[in-house]
Amino acid sequence: MKKTLILLLVIAMTASCAREQKFTVSGTIDGATNETVVLQKRVPGSYEVIDTAVIENGAFMMTGTIAYPQMVNLAIKGKRGGLNFFIENSDITIHGNVDSLYKASVTGSKTQAEFDAYKASFEESNAEMSQIYDKYRQARMDGNTELASSIEKELEALDAKQTELKKEFIANNPGSYVTPIVLGEISYYLEADEMENLLAGLDTSLNQVQVIKTMKERLVALKSVAVGQKAPDFTLNDADGNPVSLYSKLDGNTKLLLVDFWAAWCGPCRQENPNVVAVWKEYNKKGFDVFGVSLDRSKEDWLKAINDDHLTWTHVSDLKYWDCAPAKMYAVSAIPSNFLLDGEGVIIGHNLRGEALALKVKEVLDAK
Question: How do beta strands 288-294 and 314-317 pair?
Fold first, then answer.
């Protein structure tokens, strides 16, 4: 009898634990009547719907299970945007307004609370960066290039400081489900060896996270285009529809070639273009050239940006946006992104921007 009672207790506890492995997302959305809320998660290239619910008297509720804590989006059907938050198998409450759902409060998710604390730790430096950026933008508008260059260095220093803090967070929180988000924020700045080291330090429980899976796939590509590797060749059409290969630009006269991934719609790219133009003007006759690869969708916008920004070098594009084949080949996940090749096609620099590009080009060409 005693054994039977113990067995029944174990079964009851197991069933109880099984019942607990679910989430409940409920709350109120002021200003919403009979509209549908959609709970969805990001998957490569689109969103996957987890659940939906009709808002009745401003309130809604959804239940289900989630494999692990992850970032999801709560949106009003037919409206863009919405609230991004960490869901987990717990009772989560959301309160917001239909016109500003992205500002809604979230309680009941420990992972979301951890993420909120992480974001709060950067509020002061983000505010400082915003103020400095306003000064930088004003200096650019005023045509004060010397002041803009000085302010740009301040921004780069602050950005570097934030990146180091994020690396510390990753190292100190190897099992946190916030960590993949943080790693994603700085992945653009990481070379293959550093990304590999950071990924190797993570708890194996994070291997199921899509961001980590994607980064491991990207790491393979990153290794193939790391500094010291031979740049993979590719061919795309120029503005006139003529196919142009990367290696056709390494014709013996070119000692350095910058493969520049950019787009007309990319603000940071357009801000960086004057720096590239300045380096091209100063060093083109000494053997420096640029090969522009656009991630545009509109040929009209692409050609207008080339003309407006005075980009006088060779340009190619398949006009496929992020489906650009060479961008995938070169593991480009954000733009502007560039690779500096020597005359033999060996990669000797990556993501050199502003003064860093000018200094590297000068260093190499002066040594020849």
Answer: parallel
- Provide the mean pLDDT of the chain: 91
Q: Give the integer Cα–Cα distance in Å for 101 and 230.
A: 48
Main-chain phi, psi angles of 6, to 5 degrees: -65, -45
Length of the chain counted residue by residue: 368
Note the pLDDT of residue 253: 87
**Residue (of 191, 236, 192) closest to 351 by Cα position:** 191
Architecture label for domain 2-107:
Sandwich (2.60)
**Which position has the higher pLDDT, 7 or 219?**
219
Among 136-145, 231-240, 291-300, 335-344, which stretch is predicted with the lowest mean pLDDT?
136-145
Q: Is 290 helix (H, G, I), strand (E, B) or coil?
A: strand
Q: State pTM to two decimals.
A: 0.75
User: Terminus-to-terminus CA distance in the chain, angstroms?
Assistant: 90
The percent of residues above 70 in pLDDT, for the chain, comes to: 94
Residues of the chain with CATH 2.60.40.10: 2-107
Specify the DSSP element, H or E, that contains 341: strand 337-342
Q: Which two tokens stand for residue 12?
A: 């009851």
Alpha helices, H only, the chain:
2-20, 110-120, 123-142, 145-172, 179-186, 192-200, 210-224, 267-283, 299-308, 325-329, 355-367
- If one counts every other C-beta atom within 10 angstroms of the C-beta of residue 333, the result is 17
The rounded distance, in Å, linking the Cα atoms of 346 and 46 is: 36
C-alpha span between 273 and 264 (Å, rounded): 10
Residue 9 has pLDDT above 50, yes or no: no
Q: 20: pLDDT confidence band, cut at 50, 70 and 90?
A: low
One-letter identity of residue 354: G
**In this structure, which CATH number among 3.40.50.1820, 3.40.190.10, 3.40.30.10, 3.40.710.10 belongs to the domain 235-367?**
3.40.30.10
Contact 365, 342 (CB under 8 A): no
Residue whose pair of structure tokens reads 């899976």 in the numeric block: 213
